[in-house]
């Protein structure tokens, strides 16, 4: 039986796989993102997803490894996870009243094949006041998310419109991932929900 290995520590990606009842194990990947050279946002997430997938070794022959990386991009500038409150404030001020893009790079690999792709979603924010931004920054939510907001939680109130896959903004373009996994022999369990999560 084929075993899916999620090479990601993101709780959102775990939740999304569980949402469609795909069994998986987690395994830590070891990539120093700070050493990535600045390129276009699309090239950046694709390269990083590929590096993450290849940094995780196979334990047995029937494993399939999936990795992903998500960034927010405004005017071709990559906005990752903020390292401070000021950086988070600056990011949200930049996105306020503007349109930005969210890119997620995905790599799936087995011993026999490898698939990589990038999904893009366009997001428009309402104009935000300083008080709105500061109130949001008082929570823990912005600091572990690209672009300093979570569309699946309180950050949703900033979003005026999206064009593209909503789940891509959360962190994984779910429907495209499910379709890509079919060629690796991995399918969602839609008739008998079973959430199986193991690993570290």
TrEMBL record:
Compartmental location: Cytoplasm
Main subcellular location of this protein, as a coarse class: cytoplasm
Catalytic activity entry: UTP + H2O = UMP + diphosphate + H(+); dTTP + H2O = dTMP + diphosphate + H(+)
GO molecular function, one term: UTP diphosphatase activity
Catalytic residues as annotated in Swiss-Prot or TrEMBL: 69 (proton acceptor)
Keyword Hydrolase: yes
Cofactor: a divalent metal cation
PANTHER family: BIFUNCTIONAL DTTP/UTP PYROPHOSPHATASE/METHYLTRANSFERASE PROTEIN-RELATED, BIFUNCTIONAL DTTP_UTP PYROPHOSPHATASE_METHYLTRANSFERASE PROTEIN-RELATED
Protein name per its UniProtKB record: dTTP/UTP pyrophosphatase
